[in-house]
Amino acid sequence: MSNRRSFLQLALGGIPFLTSFRPNFVKKPLIVSTWDSGLAVNEAAWKILRQPTGKALDAVEAAARDIEASINCCVGLGGNPDRDGKVTLDASIMDHQFNCGSVAALENILHPISVARKLMETTPHVMLVGEGARQFALENGFPRESDQLSKEAQEAYTNWLKTSEYKPIKNIEQQQSKARQRTGNGPFAPATLEDGSFNHDTMGSIALDQSGNLSGACTTSGMGFKMRGRVGDSPIIGSGLYVDNAVGAATGSGQGEEVIRVCGTFLIVELMRQGKSPKEACRIAIERIVAINPEKAKTFQVGFIAINKNGEYGAYSLAPGFSYAVKDSEAAGKVYPAESYFKG
Ligand code: SD4
Known about the structure:
Mean pLDDT is 86; it is low at 1-23 and 166-187. This protein has ten helices and twelve strands. Strand 9 and strand 10 form a beta hairpin. The longest helix is centred in the last third of the chain and has 15 residues, at 278-292. By secondary structure, the chain is an alpha+beta fold. Helix 2 packs antiparallel against helix 3 (56-68), helix 3 (56-68) packs antiparallel against helix 4 (112-122) and helix 9 packs across helix 10. Helices cover 30% and strands 20% of the residues.
């Protein structure tokens, strides 16, 4: 998809010597979001992007808010809790001028993405965590929501407690490697959920508005049944989300620890700066993760999406199953399966 041919290339029948020629023809507006659920959030964002003055920043925030307000395993207060039964949220947002804001391990607040934006716009800071993030949110008028888990999350947690046999044990972290050998996942966040699906569905959205500006947002409840206080890639600028308005934007979903290790989205934007297409850049970042430990790479999922300044987009994942949703001015929204490094 990243290699969508331009109008000029199509008109000339895709003459090979023109394939690297990039005419000054930018496809905008455009929004790309992770997973099939990106389809719905793109629609929420489109109400803003279709306006001539609609801002990509407002659009990606609207996309994130849309899913934060729904019940699903992996985003918002309805998501799966940590292993102590608390839902802790991570989110980040970045605009076309390197302004960025993020919150991590935030509890009881419905819209972490808007807290991240508030932080970005009203303070000199980039990131707040835990109790400080919640205090900031409450002081800024975000209502405090209850600790009650959603019905779905309560069921999943109850099941997880059974199979993991988790009981809070002092210094359990020191026993992790043993436990992991015994159960495969031990007290760590499991890579897969009970039904076999990967333990994530983070919503990352990247957009290009009609003024040609890029922005991105990423929001998640993180890996279900994670250790208390664990922070993934999603709120870390350059890992779960990065935007450089001169080049492009990238975000992703999957096992955050592995994305943090390679500064995944910063890497993708830098690769696009060097001339790689969005899809190639995502693929190279995935290969970088595989190269660290090819055997281990078979046990988890990471999926990246990217767009560039020309409105080209692409994605690539480690394992099959990652998908992404695209909405541009040409078509109704579409979901595409991402190509993956491992084929089965
Ligand atoms: C994390 N990247 O916390 C996230 C996981 C994810 O839905 O994709 N969650 O590591």
